[in-house]
């Protein structure tokens, strides 16, 4: 066990250097920055242009929830399901025998997004990130035909994961065909995973909670999806914006990188983060607030939480820029267009600072 919270003479416990045999296939360069996924607005052509302008070393396919049902996390995630159909009910997305109009709209949004990506980035070469709701977040959010959460039925959970994996393989292959120079990274968004493991997901009626999923089962099902992603020569990443994200479980499921909100991390999270970094895990740290402050922070202020975390973990400062990918915090869909652009620009500058001036003792 790592003792990440022990201090001597005011300094963190010394750690061994990070393993040099870092995971193969990580395509982003040191000092990279990328986005979490969602952005404000409804114009996908403009959003793709913005991302590639501001995050040229590690762009992502943006998501625009403001377009309405089918552009949201769950509706868009359900669009990847193969041979499973959904419809939007007053209570939320529900599994059905045939797709509803909102499900067809989700597929149409995705098709338009890929057309915009191909038109703007057909000649792009480098790491390119895609995002999709993970199997546990889908299972926690989708209702079965008879009204309970899919999460309450292990058979339904496995069906969703298998269907999602098949759809993601096809999605990755489509992007690889459209942007031939890209090395695809697929981010599974799992904001509900902590609640799934803790038994805190409310039932469809809201009068009780769904029983917790055993950790080995949760990891096994995630690992099956991860293996399909890797089988398509893509790099699996996970993102969880909840407090105390299950970093250990995500790493055990085969994720090469884990995205967390650095502004929510506490000493309670240090051991899992430290063990992950020692094992070669990349950290996608959300370092910028979702909504813009009165005045934009300086780059020095942006990198301060990353340096503070690194100082607590006790790693060599020179390894900071090669381990951390800078991102804004998730939820930029609710920000102003001006702050979204500023946040991405500051993230790019912060990533470079972590490489060029990594000294964690600076504040």
List keywords for this structure.
363 residues, alpha/beta, six-stranded parallel β-sheet, two-stranded antiparallel ribbon, 12 helices
Summarize the structure.
Helix content is 40%, strand content 15%.
Gyration radius (Cα, Å) is 20 Å
Give me the count of strands: 10
Beta-strand percent range: 5-15%
- In the predicted model, the low-confidence regions spanning at least 5 consecutive residues are 1-24
Residue-averaged pLDDT: 90
Look at the helices and sheets and give the structural class: alpha/beta
Q: Please count the helical segments.
A: 12
User: Regarding quaternary structure, how should these chains be classified?
Assistant: single chain
Neighbour order of strands in the largest sheet:
5-6-7-8-9-10
**Share of residues in helices:** 40-55%
How are helices and strands ordered from N to C? Answer: EEHHEEHEHHEHHEHEHEHHEH
The shape is: globular
Between the first and last Cα atoms, what is the distance in angstroms? 29 Å
Largest sheet: 6 strands, parallel
């Amino acid at each position: 066990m790592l003792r990440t919270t022990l201090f001597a003479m005011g300094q963190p416990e010394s750690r061994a250097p990070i393993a040099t045999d870092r995971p193969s296939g990580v395509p982003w360069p040191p000092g990279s920055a990328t986005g979490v996924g969602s952005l404000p607005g409804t114009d996908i052509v403009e959003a793709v242009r913005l991302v590639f302008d501001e995050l040229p070393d590690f762009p992502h396919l943006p998501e625009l929830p403001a377009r309405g049902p089918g552009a949201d996390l769950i509706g868009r995630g359900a669009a990847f399901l193969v041979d499973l159909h959904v419809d939007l009910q007053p209570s939320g997305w529900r599994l059905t025998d045939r797709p509803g109009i909102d499900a067809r709209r989700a597929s149409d949004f995705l098709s338009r997004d890929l057309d915009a990506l191909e038109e703007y980035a057909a000649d792009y070469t480098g790491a390119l990130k895609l995002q999709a709701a993970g199997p546990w977040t889908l299972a926690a959010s989708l209702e079965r035909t008879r009204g309970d959460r899919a999460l309450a039925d292990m058979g339904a959970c496995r069906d969703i994961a298998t269907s999602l994996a098949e759809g993601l393989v096809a999605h990755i292959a489509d992007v690889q065909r459209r942007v031939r120079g890209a090395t695809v990274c697929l981010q599974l968004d799992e904001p509900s995973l902590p609640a799934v493991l803790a038994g805190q997901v409310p039932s469809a009626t809201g009068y009780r909670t769904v029983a917790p999923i055993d950790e080995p089962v949760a990891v096994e099902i995630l690992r099956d999806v991860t293996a399909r992603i890797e089988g398509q020569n893509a790099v699996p990443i996970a993102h969880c914006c909840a407090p105390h994200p299950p970093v250990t479980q995500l790493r055990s499921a085969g994720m090469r990188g884990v995205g967390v909100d650095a502004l929510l991390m506490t000493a309670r999270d240090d051991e899992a983060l430290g063990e992950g970094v020692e094992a070669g895990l990349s950290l996608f740290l959300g370092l910028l607030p979702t909504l813009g402050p009165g005045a934009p922070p300086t780059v020095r202020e942006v990198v301060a939480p990353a340096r503070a975390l690194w100082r607590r973990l006790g790693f060599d400062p020179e390894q900071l820029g090669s381990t951390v990918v800078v991102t804004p915090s998730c939820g930029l869909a609710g920000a102003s267009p001006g702050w979204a652009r500023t946040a991405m620009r500051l993230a790019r500058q912060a990533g470079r600072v972590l490489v060029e001036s990594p000294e964690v003792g600076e504040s």
